[in-house]
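Sat 14:20. Reprocessing the chain from the morning session after the first attempt stalled halfway. Input below, unchanged.
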Amino acid sequence: MATRSPFSNDVCNHLLTLFFSCLLLITILSTPALAAGPESTAVSSTHFQTDSPLDIEELNSSASETVEIVVRLEEVTIPEAASDADAEQLLTDHANETQEPVLEYAATTPGVSVETEFWLTNAVLLKVDPDRIELEALESVTAVETVHRNFELTIPEPQTTIQTGETSSTAIGTEPHQSTAGIELLNAPAVWDAYETRGDGVRVAVLDTGIDAAHPDIDLYTADSSDPTYPGGWAAFDETGDRVDGSTPYDSGVHGTHVSGTVAGGGASGTQIGVAPDVELLHGLVLNETSGSFAQLIAGMEWALEEDADVINLSLGMTGTYSQLIDPVTHAIESGAVVVAAVGNEGVDSSSSPANVYDVISVGAVHEDGTVASFSGGEHLNRSEWHTAPETWPTSYVVPTAVAHGVGVTSTVPGGGYQALPGTSMATPHVSGTVALLLSVEPDATPDAVSTALSETAWKPAGAITPQRSTTMDTRYGYGIVDAKATTDAIVAVHSDTDTSVTDETAETDATETTATRETPPFSRLVAGTVALVVTTISVATLLLARSLARETKW
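Finished this time. Tokens:
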């Protein structure tokens, strides 16, 4: 008589049933829409809806004045496996191949001229005389998908008027290693000490109103210190996106110098004002005093990528959802840059583009004590509220991503002075500086890995009450206050196959602090729960298998 195999049909059926049950449970738990709770469900938003195509009739009625029209063509899809250099080359080649019909149309049509060609987004800026051509005709040109105004972006309100060179007493330290309140809240000094870096080897591009490169706390990167135009570290762009030849660094306002100081300022006053003072700081002027055009911004971002910027700081935007900004910032991220942007200063149930574009790290503002500033933006956004949005976006999501100090932030202003200013614009460079620190430690970290590390390690003050009383993400804190040391530790843990002893000596202290004041990141709780489920299921499977085998073989 043949001996029955220990792995009989009944046993196999047991195992298959258990396997698929386990797989189903893990899939349910790992699906964001189900695992994240009520925060991720689609909700109605009261945000300022501005995402609409160009108002052709309005522009046609603008008398005989010429108008600047951005013609948008089909975008190229960047393969996930493409390198940063390959992504930029694909974008450039695609633009060159597909823009020819528009260029030919402009060359052969009276009343139409080409101002600027772009590659970061497949677009051409035209100057058009509405008296000589109907603007609707532009949409009939081969390969044209849409057209829109060369609209303006601005510095988020509130704005504070200050005098050039004015010095605030709050900026002057009495201790040689004193840091600003924002740097202390960020826990940046712990990164400096533990990893012995202050951002060296990383390039951060601030796109803003300009910079006072002569400020004693500003060290603007240049490839040639004898050249007053600061090659490689400075560029200025006009409203059509053309680079201003021969421009030397200056600040058309005060905003850009202040933001740049928070990213990379030194401690000449006795107070350390910059999060990552050893970075290679680039500055592109894309705002004139308080505002700049779409073309200026795109040209500045292209320049930043061409200069190999690792981080792009955008303390600017427009309240509402602007689909016109999705492709440029998405392509910048696909090209390897981490894009960090201010969520805006319009308060609850508001946000600004480009910060509210899904893949951007959007930043809100908190007081020194960790409470959210009343002006700090944040809201639920539904994909359907955008005129166009990628299908890869979730049905709904929340901004900001996280928050940092943004009330009374002391930093540099033109003329060698310092000033304390409020705004999500001031919170944003704290996060850009944090990204620079962690990239200095782990230069191969991807934008997605950086965003994940920031999100998983952010914290909220004990007893923080949010509108949704959420323990995960909410519209005031996002995931919470950024912790530079915890974020850097997290990125090292993900990438490390080598010695991690640099963090072991502070692990006990950090663990005590985390238990007392900071909540366990939601994703970490999800992973822990999923692992527990898998272990339990495998244990049950093993027990049932043993029993089945015992019955079959009479062990």
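The radius of gyration is 26 Å.
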